Amino acid sequence: MSANFLTASDNDALCARIQQLRPVSVRHWGKMTASQMVVHCTDQLRVSRGEKVVSSTRLPGFIKPLVKWLVVSRLKAFKPGMRTLKELDAEAGMTLPTTFEADRDVLLGLLEREKYGPQGVEHPVFGHLTAQEFGEVTWKHLDHHLRQFGV
Fold this sequence. Notes:
Layout lengths: L7 H13 L13 H15 L15 H11 L25 H11 L10 E3 L3 E3 L1 H18 L3
Antiparallel strand pairs: 1-2
């Protein structure tokens, strides 16, 4: 079983790492600034919660289980240079950053475990994710970007 942001100890550790981030944190790969990365991760949670619409990827329903299995179950960690959805891309459709502290607070607020129920989420790329799958893939995504900035 992988780390899961919906587990108290994993959530605490993840939030502590996010608190270590600074607007001047230097990236080890990619193009985003630390501020853009925080908003990118926030947008990923918004997509998963149905609060941000994704129209750039239209996968047929029969493909979603395969994509889900590959990314959620088989992928141990996100790799540098992986492509993102247009709506999460800092150079395309991502929400614009405001101030680093305010954006970080929004991300931390969306990571509050109480905001997520046991039913899981409907994801536009993966289809239905159980709470376990959602917690694990979200942790992998956030861990990827925190490693990107050395925290």
